[in-house]
Design brief:
about 220 residues; L-arginine/glycine Amidinotransferase, Chain A; about 30% strand; alpha/beta; 3-stranded mixed β-sheet
Length: about 220
C-alpha cells in the first residue's frame, strides 16, 4: 500500500476539496489535473466525479458516502447530480434544513454515527435506506463529527482528541478498528488533510515524518487495509 503526500492549490487541505469512498471519488470541479492524476494513481480510483456540491467548493463537508450510497443536500443542482450518477451508486437527496452532511455524520458500510444536530426523522430516513446500525453523539464535544475521522478499508482513522470511550463507540457502530492520528503537522480535524481508499492513503504536504509513521503503523497493525 502506498502512503503519499499531496497538495491542492498549494495547500495541504486535500480532504476539504475531495471525498474518497471505496474506489470512487468526488473532487472539486476546479481541481488541477495533477491532483486528479495523483488520486487515481495512489488510491487506485476507478470512477471519479469532478463537481462541486450545491455550488460549494469544499465538497467533503457536503456529502457522506459508503460503498453503496451517497447522501447529498437538497440544494444540489441537476448538473452536479448527473455527475455523481456516473459513480454507479444510489444517491439519496435529503430534504432537510441541514445541508453539510459530510460534517453531520460519519459513515461506513455497516454503521453510522450522527451528530446530535441531525433530527431523529432525518436519521431514520437515512438508515432505513442503508439498513445499517446508527447512533448519536458528539466527538470531543464537537458537533461536526465527520471532520474528526476518515474511514478506509478496515480502518477508521480518528483524531487524537477523541477519548477511549468515543473510539469504542465508533468501533461498535462502524465495525472498524480505530487508530488515533494527526496530519498536516498537528491538524486535529483530520478529514481536511487526508484521503483513504482500500488501496492507498494520501495526506497533506504538511504531514510530518512522525505522523506518517503513525499512519503506517496503523495500517500494519490492521493486518490488511
Amino acid at each position: 500500500m502506498e502512503i503519499a503526500k499531496a497538495s491542492i492549490w498549494k495547500t495541504p487541505y486535500i480532504g476539504a476539496y475531495s471525498k474518497v469512498f471505496g474506489n470512487s471519488a468526488v473532487v472539486n470541479k476546479n481541481a488541477p489535473q495533477g491532483f486528479l492524476r495523483k488520486i487515481i494513481k495512489v488510491l487506485k480510483i476507478d470512477s471519479i466525479a469532478v463537481t462541486n456540491i450545491a455550488g460549494v467548493h469544499a465538497v467533503s463537508s457536503m456529502i457522506s458516502a459508503n460503498s453503496n450510497f451517497i447522501i447529498v443536500p437538497d440544494t444540489i443542482d441537476e448538473e452536479e447530480l448527473n455527475e455523481l450518477n456516473k459513480l454507479s451508486r444510489e444517491v439519496l437527496v435529503m430534504e432537510s434544513k441541514l445541508k453539510a452532511w459530510g460534517n453531520m455524520m460519519l459513515l461506513s458500510d455497516r454503521g453510522v454515527l450522527f451528530s446530535p444536530r441531525v433530527s431523529k426523522q432525518d436519521a431514520e430516513k437515512i438508515v432505513d435506506s442503508l439498513s445499517i446500525d446508527y447512533g448519536f453523539s458528539t466527538l470531543a464535544n464537537y458537533m461536526a463529527v465527520g471532520a474528526l475521522a476518515v474511514t478506509g478499508g478496515k480502518i477508521c482513522f480518528v483524531s487524537k482528541i477523541l477519548n477511549e470511550e468515543e473510539k469504542k463507540l465508533l468501533e461498535d457502530l462502524l465495525k472498524l478498528k480505530t487508530y488515533s492520528i494527526t496530519v498536516n503537522d498537528g491538524l486535529m480535524f483530520i478529514r481536511l488533510g487526508m484521503l483513504a481508499s482500500p488501496h492507498g492513503i494520501l495526506v497533506g504536504e504538511s504531514t510530518t515524518g512522525s505522523e506518517l509513521m503513525d499512519i503506517s503503523l496503523a495500517v500494519s497493525s490492521a493486518g490488511s487495509f
